[in-house]
């Protein structure tokens, strides 16, 4: 054995039986990604074609936006969750558990209360959307940036603060909603609980562009995020500024969350479900692999699930509930497993 | 290369590092010794910009560490912390590859792979290269982190207790490696050590800290003496010359 300083000590340092090569790991994750991609494509194809009777010019405009929305939202949730987990330094938190969605609802409610329904319905949806996202980014940076950026990695504290903020936002929004008149409430309700049905196409277009840009930005940041996953100190030592990277990434996550929430409404545990599955299937060695896997799994769950529910079983609205249920179980499983260890 | 000028760290009213000044220019091995809580890690962390500096200044290669760009510093100074947490599940080779980040920004070149292979060999890690870090013993993991620091290939290297968890064979190997880095590669290495005899055997210079202050700073002969060690650690010891090497012994 060639020793560090050239001395030859006969005692074997490592048990040779343990030295099973793990070069296969990378190939394994690539194969898994290919498999997920095929499954995702298959789900999309099924969704578009299954039970499609008659004229394509009728089917296409009806189904295509819904499919696009599911893909875009699934991707946004997957991306935001995996990144958020890196920023917070653990694999239980998601933007939703930390109250991002509730923050969105509160901002919407405040807008209706302060500016009035007339303003909200008359205003340019784009302008409104951008203003809303900007407010959300500022808030997210202020609230979560201070918690996450400065090396506050105490999981329990983060979780607690997140949950409390979430409850606070939700109750505040609920309280304000009780104060406004019923007509205003209907307008608000519409904005808070949109579903995959009846997606506004112009908003969809904005969402595609916004999420596309954020994805590109994150793609450029991936090597730095890989370094950040080594921990704050190692990241600094390797020349990555964790505070700056965290703030930038939190801002981008806020964009993803507000876009996807604006499009389809809040989901709490879905992100956790896809992120956990992705880590289990392809590991967490590189963000690129984990992220692609998470996005593909999100598309498979949403599109595949919707196809089965809608086309095979004949339900329509239950998908969200089922996915939240599964995600909640995954959350509990992770928390319990950690507690036992 | 490294210049610390009256560095001070305050936690509330307590000055855990109190006006510590240190200049390191020539290649060589400098050991920092001192009792638990003396401020050794804090001093290293401030020089390596891991902790904000409350008073004083630190320069690396003429760059003020609080102002200079992170990646410029990362090509000049590397640091191994006392404890390391990880979120991602990485193999040893992956981890060492990250040491190349300041040079390659995440896209490993052929040269980077050469450096990674060298670092693996230096630390006796080839058989473990494809193992995941959470499948290693504490000492093996410690070596993997040192290999990452080595792959970073900086002129100045700060190691906070690199002998943590190492068996005697690997501890000796590690110190020989540190010597080689200084002698053959011209590195400026600072190591925090708890074993005075390791410091005495391998260092050129010893810096002793106590209660936040640097109390002695000099060649081995000047520091490893019964009076000085007793003054630093508050413990009476015997110092004998054995085989030409200052050795510290303890009474029962
Ligand atoms: N975040 C903190 N808040 C308050 N005090 C701190 C903090 N971090 C460190 N200290 C104190 O600073 C002092 C110096 O700590 P430091 O880690 O530098 O010691 P050390 O010399 O490296 O000790 P060891 O040999 O145990 O590693 C200790 O008394 C410690 O309690
Ligand atoms: Mg220490």
TrEMBL record, chain A:
Similarity comment: family membership: Belongs to the binding-protein-dependent transport system permease family. FecCD subfamily.
Taxonomic placement: Bacteria, Pseudomonadati, Pseudomonadota, Alphaproteobacteria, Hyphomicrobiales
Subcellular location: Cell membrane
Pfam families reported for this sequence: FecCD
Main location group: membrane
Organism: Jiella pacifica
Keywords attached to this entry: Cell membrane, Membrane, Transmembrane, Transmembrane helix, Transport
GO biological process entries: siderophore-iron import into cell
Protein name as it appears in the record: Iron chelate uptake ABC transporter family permease subunit
GO MF: transmembrane transporter activity
Gene Ontology annotations for the cellular component aspect, listed alphabetically: plasma membrane
Annotated membrane topology: Multi-pass membrane protein
Listed Gene3D superfamilies: ABC transporter involved in vitamin B12 uptake, BtuC
SUPFAM superfamilies from the UniProt entry: ABC transporter involved in vitamin B12 uptake, BtuC (SSF81345)
Chain segments annotated as transmembrane: 32-52, 67-87, 99-120, 126-148, 155-176, 203-222, 234-257, 263-283, 290-309, 315-336
Superkingdom of source: Bacteria
TrEMBL record, chain B:
UniProt xrefs under Pfam families: ABC_tran
GO BP terms: iron ion transport
Membrane topology: Peripheral membrane protein
SMART domains, per the entry: AAA
Gene3D superfamilies: P-loop containing nucleotide triphosphate hydrolases
CC annotations in GO: plasma membrane
Molecular function GO terms recorded: ATP binding; ATP hydrolysis activity
Transmembrane regions: none
Keywords recorded for this protein, A-Z: ATP-binding, Cell membrane, Ion transport, Iron, Iron transport, Membrane, Nucleotide-binding, Transport
Domain called ABC transporter: residue spans: 2-236
Cellular localization per UniProt: Cell membrane
Keyword Flavoprotein: no
Family: Belongs to the ABC transporter superfamily.
Protein name: ATP-binding cassette domain-containing protein
